[in-house]
Specification:
mainly alpha; 3 helices; elongated; IS231-related transposase
Length: 67
């Protein structure tokens, strides 16, 4: 079940106390959530977390051929 981003912070702090494997799992899930929602934001012309932080990332764009 996907969590909102703010719900990941307590999980992250718990993982820091437990060990690095849990931290990596949580950070990976958080990255996938941000990536998925970032694509939605661009579709609606909204800024993403990556845009706000100034992080450059690749976008996939389908090229249409003119007839």
């Amino acid at each position: 079940m996907p969590y909102p981003i703010k719900d990941y912070f307590p999980l992250l702090f718990q993982a820091i106390a437990v060990g690095t494997e849990e931290i990596l799992k949580i950070l990976h899930r958080l990255y996938l959530l941000l990536k998925k929602n970032g694509r939605k934001c661009h579709r609606y012309k909204k800024m993403t977390v990556f845009d706000i932080l100034g992080i450059v990332y690749k976008t996939t764009v389908k090229h249409r051929q003119s007839a």
